[in-house]
Amino acid sequence: MIRGFSPNDILFLLGALRWTALLAAGAFVGSAVVGLVLATMRLSRFRAVRWLAIVYVQLVQGIPLLVWLFLLYFGVAMLGFNVDPWLAAILGFSIYGGAFLGEVWRGAMGSIEVTQWEAGAALGLSISQQLRHVIVPQSVQIAIPPTIGFLVQLIKNTSLASTIGILEVTREGQLTSAATYQPMTVYLVVAALYFALCFPLTQWSRSLERKFNAGR
Amino acid sequence: MPVVEINNIVKRFGSNTVLDDVSLSVDRGEVITVLGRSGSGKSTMLRCINGLEPIQGGSIRVDGVEVNDPACDLRVLRQNVGIVFQSFNLFPHLSVCDNITLAPRIVQRQAREHSRDLARGVLRQVGLEDKLDAFPNSLSGGQKQRVAIARSLAMHPKVMLFDEVTSALDPELTGEVLKVLEGVAAAGMTMILVTHEIGFARRFGSRVVFMHHGKVHEIGPAAETLANPQTAEFAAFLSAVLH
Q: What backbone torsions phi and psi does residue B56 show, to the nearest 5 degrees?
């Protein structure tokens, strides 16, 4: 039965936006952990460790995110394991996002001149003290804008999780659209909700970028 | 006992021999100026002394400690050997005070309150006491280099290395840095300077070293050797620099 689009539907969509936000937050934390491990591996003095991180990034970046989600949800389920869609989604986003963040952070640390490491070493700082007090604080300034940019991408990409049965805002929109047969209205609301989540972040990123550039 | 003892060191970058059987012994309180064309190995020699570059042969001792002994703790060594670089290499994210006190606080574990006094003291030595809370990007090149010298002094090193510390500066800023170096020398610091400032070498240097093709080509008391170079290469170098 087809019903009209009512204010209640907006409430349902808002409710689903919570799950979008939660999924994005979980995926961001997971990506950050994987990214940190990858960036650290790239600093290793052992060639094999650096090489492993490079292979990981190449492999992950050559496979679409949607395929990762399908592999982790439907693929693993076929092996006889009962996979929770949330677990599959956060794992998939973390595998994928970690490769991206790892590269961003490695690039940020790589853009700090070698002479900064040397200045630290010459003062008797250990490698980890050089990292902690000299390299990381400077890299963070460089890495923040692209990291927030990544978060914005991540929020939008969580819509892909609708395909493995997570009732986030896009999936809720599909259901509402099917029930009301008003896809234009429904998806405009969905679009507005995503925008409301992402726009402040991009503005924040821009203002941080301006601030750091002014300080240089 | 010499503070720095370099014995027959060899340094190669790949197949390129940069230091070829170099020896140099520096006594406490000496001010050694090292001259030579670019590529003659003078900066590399400095970097070997505090272990920034490993050597492939020979030995370096600083205050009796073997630098290239695997058991040598480079972090301990570097607290005794200060180095000031051509490009200052201040930490841009830290204030002048934090630049100076970072290593004393985390390497020598000084209390923060105490370290601020330390910073003030070394800044007074370089004439920049009013810049305690400034950030590096607000300083002129000459001021940055003076802060870098203060940062090194704060570790109370036994010897200080200066790697072309005035080469990146405009002529009018060179003077203020040289004046600070004079003060450090007058305070009795053992110094090894790679420099093109012949005037400084003549007036304040105890000995001068001329490096050529990775070797110590000529060495002698500063004023006499500069006035009267014994080798054709040093004479040619000096006349090129002085004109």
A: -100, -10
Q: Give residue A1's pLDDT band: very low, low, confident or very high (50, 70, 90).
A: low
List, in order of start, the domains of chain A with CATH numbers.
Answer: 7-215 (1.10.3720.10)
What the block records as the tokens of B77 is: 């060594």
Per-residue tokens: B228: 């009267």
Residues A116, B89: C-beta atoms closer than 8 Å: yes
Interface test with B, best of A123, A125, A138, A139 (most B CBs within 10 A): A123
Helices (H), chain B: 42-49, 74-80, 96-106, 112-125, 141-153, 171-186, 198-204, 222-227, 232-242
Q: All domains of chain B, ordered by start, with CATH?
A: 4-90+159-242 (3.40.50.300)
pLDDT tens for residues B170-192?
A: 988 999 999 999 999 999 999 99
pLDDT of residue A93: 97
pLDDT score, position B112: 85
Chain B neighbors of A118, CB-CB under 8 A: 52, 85, 89
This complex has an ipTM of 0.91
Contacts of B79 (CB under 8 A, 6+ apart): A123, A124, B103, B107, B108, B155, B157
Number of helices followed by number of strands (H, E) in chain B = 9, 10
> For the whole model, what pTM was predicted?
0.85
* CA dist., res. B72 & res. B69, Å (int): 5
